């Protein structure tokens, strides 16, 4: 693990998050904070420096910019939302890494449009957690493993056992390389709290089988939300700031 780069965090803080009037709940869009983005790079530097990096579900390009600033040779961000990609292009220009980063608009189940297999060394991504569409987090991992031998992906700690168990079915080995905190701001009208501090794992998947993972499930429109963020109960410990802080496993 490298030393946290505060200059990287400062650079990422200048980037634009999702516009509130354009954010799309059906895509589970949440901004990756500068602190979290810098913390992720801290744990994956050896697989980013001078590497060809893929960012699936890149959103506004925070991780794409972070990887480029951390020394990736090329970065390609993939997202299905043109509004997010427009912001991502603005952000890479702000970071002066537009000569390193490019973006592709397509869905992860569109095999005809996804980048070629083995065109990248590493995938780094913060996929949807699967709150809106069950299984979409696993679908992102399978899509990434079909394109890259090494995948770093952020997931809710509550799904750790499932992902580590299923990894071998996808022809991969998986390890939790860091435990982090994701401070999710109130983004949608149904959120009851101003923010929610979520325990997340940075998981490293490594493809060990020659066969490709199972096909990605259809990305059909999921049903409307059925739950709300619950108000905080009495007697719970206060939430620390903790965004992006974590410990090496």
TrEMBL record:
Domain Methyltransferase small, residue spans: 40-143
Biased composition (Pro residues): 214-226
GO MF annotations, alphabetized: nucleic acid binding; rRNA (adenine-N6-)-methyltransferase activity
Pfam families found in the cross-reference section: MTS
Ranges where the record places region Disordered: 214-249
Domain of life: Eukaryota
Protein name: Methyltransferase-like protein 5
Organism of derivation: Pelagomonas calceolata
């Amino acid at each position: 693990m490298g030393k946290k780069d505060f200059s990287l965090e400062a650079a990422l803080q200048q980037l634009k998050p999702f516009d509130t009037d354009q954010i799309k709940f059906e895509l589970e869009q949440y901004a990756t904070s500068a602190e979290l983005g810098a913390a992720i790079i801290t744990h994956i530097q050896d697989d980013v420096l001078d590497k060809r990096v893929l960012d699936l579900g890149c959103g506004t390009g925070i991780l794409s910019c972070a990887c480029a600033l951390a020394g990736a040779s090329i970065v390609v961000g993939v997202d299905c939302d043109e509004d997010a990609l427009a912001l991502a292009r603005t952000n890479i220009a702000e970071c002066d890494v537009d000569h390193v980063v490019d973006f592709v608009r397509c869905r992860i189940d569109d095999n005809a449009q996804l980048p070629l297999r083995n065109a990248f060394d590493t995938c780094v991504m913060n996929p949807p957690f699967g709150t809106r569409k069950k299984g979409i987090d696993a679908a992102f991992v399978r899509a990434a493993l079909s394109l890259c031998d090494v995948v770093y992906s952020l997931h809710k700690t509550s799904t750790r056992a499932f992902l580590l168990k299923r990894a071998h079915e996808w022809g991969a080995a998986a390890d939790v390389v860091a435990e982090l905190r994701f401070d999710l701001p109130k983004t949608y009208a149904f959120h009851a709290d101003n923010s929610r501090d979520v325990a997340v794992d940075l998981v490293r998947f490594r493809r060990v089988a020659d066969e490709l993972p199972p096909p990605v499930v259809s990305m059909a429109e999921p049903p409307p939300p059925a739950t709300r963020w619950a108000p905080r109960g009495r007697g719970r410990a206060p939430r620390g700031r903790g965004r992006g802080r974590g410990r090496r496993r």
